[in-house]
Amino acid sequence: MLVQILFYAFSAMLIASAFGVITARNPVHSALCLVLSFFTSAALWLLIEAEFLAIVLVLVYVGAVMVLFLFVVMMLDINVEEVRKGFTRYAWLGWLTVLAIVFEILGVVAVRRLGIDATQAPRPLASDYSNTGALGEVLYTRYVYPFELAAVLLLVAIVAAIVLTMRHRKGLKVQDIGKQVATRAQDRVRVLKIPAEKRE
Length: 200
What we know:
By secondary structure, this protein is mainly α. The chain is built from 9 helices and no strands. Helix 1 (2-23) packs antiparallel against helix 2 (27-47) and helix 2 runs antiparallel to helix 3.
């Protein structure tokens, strides 16, 4: 009974925070709502005894990705009014995407039922069961090739982001590390000898 109450409470909080992500007027508030969504999602993972996934969700997404998002949002000078001008123009595409995702989720749950009998309670796990070990065994045996492919794609994305950042553009001020290291004090500092003035 307590587990069901916690499930519905965390689910309601997750839906509310997810709704706040897309409706918040301030980008920082939207990012903070996303942080709350990740925390409540981690709590739901804990309820189904997936401790490893919950910890990874908090450490990786909240501890790294969302901190990066917050720094980017706060450091960039975003003109919110300018961004909102094109919002209604692409609203129809957003609604079509939402409908497609909802249709896919309902199709998977209703037709295939994910191989789960919802009328029966899950079997209790053994005392020596390790969620991390089971996940690692499946990930590095059955899904090792998709896992490695995802790693390669992430590496390519990182390299592409660096290349796009380092490209030469007009009017861009860049540092020349070689010139900075090769500078001498004589070239940067000039000592002037000014004769003292006599006071009358």
